[in-house]
Structure to design on (136 residues):
């Protein structure tokens, strides 16, 4: 009698494992993708802030800001990120600078791009331009 109940239990364990494994794997890979999406979001926010900082200092230009944002995205492993600066020409009369960074999740997925299909992470930062202190 002990042998038959052990065999039945062994078969039940196999069936339970077969049903639960796909769910556990789906959750595991989903958590990995959610973590990657959060990392891309934080990297885009940091790139937008640092690029805006580069543009608002005296002598800063929009091309300097774009280069800074792209270098941060590259350093953090974000692919196909786009950095835009508004206004496109930054001079002494510019009151504020807004930098927007967008990164498609299809290009930045680690496991399966289906979790965040067609999602685009967009982060922006607006800073007031610093004026040079002449005359002191």
């Amino acid at each position: 009698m002990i042998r038959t109940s052990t065999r039945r239990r062994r078969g039940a364990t196999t069936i339970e494992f077969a049903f639960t494994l796909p769910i556990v794997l789906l959750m595991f890979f989903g958590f990995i993708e959610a973590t990657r999406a959060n990392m891309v979001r934080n990297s885009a926010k940091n790139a937008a802030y640092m690029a805006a900082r580069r543009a608002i200092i005296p002598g800063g230009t929009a091309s300097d800001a774009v280069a800074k944002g792209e270098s941060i995205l590259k350093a953090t492993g974000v692919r196909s990120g786009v950095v835009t600066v508004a206004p496109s020409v930054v001079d002494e009369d510019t009151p504020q600078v807004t930098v927007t960074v967008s990164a498609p999740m299809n290009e930045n997925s680690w496991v399966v791009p289906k979790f965040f299909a067609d999602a685009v992470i967009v982060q922006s930062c607006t800073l007031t331009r610093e004026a040079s202190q002449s005359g002191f």
